[in-house]
């Protein structure tokens, strides 16, 4: 059974501080790693799709890195703002059936 | 662009009734749509994948006669929970993908439906 783990489960961060959290996934049969942002009462929104080992992607104050050999990805948020409060989901896609296997998410709460 | 709507956003029904949930891609054609279920504090679990004009592919453990999926057009997929029971109470969410098979293509999600079966 393929397992995708995200840690921590939840995180309280002071406004203005930077933070990061982890997505762990199987290190074999890797095809892609997706990051999504899910605000309460809204639809999950795609942040990044990462495919290459060592890849780093950036969108404003949010960036992500990828290590496919050891099976982890980090999501970084620089200078957290209240609007960053959301649940951040990662999903692993293997090259056997190309389905997304989801982590349970990291719930980020920014304290003003 | 790439907006997906889902209706209803929440529904309460009596045990034994059937509930239909609609998933629509509003500004693009979705060759593939996915139905997920999420229990509290757990991951999104894929229930089935539907391609327009063909039968849905159900994941192991998901009863196809209980969760009827229809993807009749490139912009609409429906999930019908038949003879719902309290254990079917959950959060159901759909997503749509534009390309028929692209692992790096983004899935666009609806806002989800909270189903409560009394």
Description:
The complex is a heterodimer of chains A (112) and B (118). Chain A is globular, with a radius of gyration of 13 Å. Chain A is mainly β. In chain A, strands 2, 4, 5, 9, 10 and 11 form a 6-stranded mixed β-sheet that branches. In chain A, strand 9 (86-94) and strand 10 form a beta hairpin. Chain A contains no helices and 11 strands. The model of chain A has no long low-confidence stretch (mean pLDDT 95). With 118 residues, chain B is mostly beta strands. Chain B is built from no helices and 11 strands. Chain B has strands at 4-7, 10-13, 19-25, 32-38, 45-51, 57-58, 67-73, 76-81, 90-97, 108-109, 113-117. In chain B, strands 2, 4, 5, 6, 9, 10 and 11 form a 7-stranded mixed β-sheet that branches. In chain B, strands 1-3-8-7 form a 4-stranded antiparallel β-sheet, with no helix packed on it. In chain B, strand 5 and strand 6 (57-58) form a beta hairpin. Chain B is globular, with a radius of gyration of 13 Å.
Query: What oligomerization state is this entry in?
Result: heterodimer
Secondary-structure element series of chain A: EEEEEEEEEEE
The SS-based structural class of chain A is mainly beta
Secondary structure: helix percent of chain A = under 10%
Give the strand content of chain A: over 45%
Report, as a whole number of angstroms, the end-to-end distance of chain B. Answer: 37 Å
* Element-level helix/strand string of chain B: EEEEEEEEEEE
- Give a short account of the largest sheet of chain A: 6 strands, mixed
Which regions of chain B have little confidence, pLDDT < 50, spanning 5+ residues?
A: none
Nearest-integer average pLDDT of chain B: 92
Please count the helical segments of chain B: 0
